[in-house]
């Protein structure tokens, strides 16, 4: 991949990279279509990155189907699929990691120790290997996008980072490879995640600004459905991710909810 990246650079091509963990869905394909607008060569990576999963998490169970992914990628014009094995990315004796000081302290950080270290490390490695001029990420993983924007600046990567709005199922559930884990009744309960965001949006439009009240109402809706257990519902500053007490400026509503054994996340910017 590094040799190919150098060849593409020398030939004067602009390359766009879309990193994924595979089991592609419409959300991923939207990122690829966006990437195509910005690069003459579109490269995707498919890598279920072990270093971003805690030992208790679903690394083994994570769905994988490279043949299906290759067909879908081809259908949107992907030129190169980089699908390395874990021992190529983390060879024996591997010991270098990328840590951010503040962004991982918030939202998903506390319940997923080491997650953003794994994400920051693998994305840094992918940037060095693929050498893209543009990289595309989903706003669905808002904190991940914030981490990547920050590390790109901090480590002087000459790469334009593009965020793509969340692609949803017809009933509003954010698309995720993990949705395949949901049993039919869990799938019904999962709808309440998006519904709670819409409720909060409505309440802000009606003039409610108190973060505690908005969070309580959103949480109440989620709790009114079976199988749901809230990890967090937070209203925070979209840049620093620090809690806000009032929605007086555009604020990020971010949620993580366990639906049965599946942990789902979603978010939206609420504007007063
Ligand atoms: P993943 O394969 O889950 O690691 O996701 C790869 C990329 O796709 C990340 O940048 C995600 O934020 C993005 N992504 C995942 N789901 C969606 C979605 N429903 N809409 C938009 N982007 C998404």
What can you tell me about this protein's structure?
This protein is an alpha/beta fold. The chain has helices at residues 2-10, 26-38, 66-75, 86-89, 108-111, 115-130, 142-154, 184-205, 211-223; strands at residues 15-20, 41-46, 80-82, 134-138, 160-164, 228-236, 251-259, 262-270. Strands 3-2-1-4-5 form a 5-stranded parallel β-sheet, sandwiched between helices. α6 (115-130) packs across α7 and α8 (184-205) packs antiparallel against α9. It starts with a helix and ends with a strand. Residues 20-21, 27-28, 30-31, 137-138, 140-141, 164, 166-167, 174-177 line the site of adenosine monophosphate (AMP).
Structural key phrases:
272 residues, alpha/beta, five-stranded parallel beta sheet, binds adenosine monophosphate
Largest sheet: 5 strands, parallel
Task: Write down the overall geometry.
Answer: globular
Assembly level: single chain
If helices are DSSP runs of H or I spanning 4 or more residues, what is the number of helices? 9
Task: Give the CA-CA distance, first to last residue.
Answer: 47 Å
Number of strands: 8
Query: How much beta, percentage-wise?
Result: 15-25%
Low-confidence stretches: none
Please write out the topology.
Layout lengths: L1 H9 L4 E6 L5 H13 L2 E6 L19 H10 L4 E3 L3 H4 L18 H4 L3 H16 L3 E5 L3 H13 L5 E5 L19 H22 L5 H13 L4 E9 L14 E9 L2 E9 L2
Give a short summary of the structure:
This protein has 272 residues and is of the alpha/beta class.
């Amino acid at each position: 991949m590094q040799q190919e990246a150098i060849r593409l650079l020398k030939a004067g091509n602009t390359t766009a990279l879309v990193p994924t963990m595979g089991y592609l869905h419409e959300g991923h394909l939207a990122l690829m279509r966006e990437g195509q607008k910005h690069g003459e060569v579109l490269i995707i990576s498919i890598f279920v990155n072990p270093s971003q999963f805690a030992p208790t998490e679903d690394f083994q169970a994570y769905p994988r189907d490279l043949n299906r992914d290759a067909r879908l990628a081809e259908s949107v014009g992907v030129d190169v699929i980089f699908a390395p094995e874990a021992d190529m990315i983390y060879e024996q004796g591997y010991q270098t990691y990328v840590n951010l000081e503040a962004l991982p302290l918030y939202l998903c950080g506390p319940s997923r120790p080491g997650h953003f270290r794994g994400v920051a490390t693998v994305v840094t490695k992918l940037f060095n290997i693929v050498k893209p001029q543009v990289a595309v990420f989903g706003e669905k993983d808002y904190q991940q996008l914030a981490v990547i924007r920050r590390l790109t600046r901090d480590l002087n990567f000459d790469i334009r980072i593009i965020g793509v709005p969340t692609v949803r199922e017809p009933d509003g559930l954010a698309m995720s490879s993990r949705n395949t884990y949901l049993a039919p009744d869990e799938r019904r309960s999962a709808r309440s995640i998006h519904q709670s965001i819409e409720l909060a949006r409505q309440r802000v439009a009606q003039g409610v600004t108190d973060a505690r009240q908005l969070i309580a109402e959103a949480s109440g809706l989620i709790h009114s459905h079976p199988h749901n257990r809230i990890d967090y519902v937070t209203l925070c500053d979209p840049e620093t991710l620090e809690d806000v007490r009032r929605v007086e400026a555009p604020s990020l509503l971010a949620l993580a909810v366990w639906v049965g054994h599946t942990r789902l996340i979603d978010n939206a910017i609420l504007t007063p």
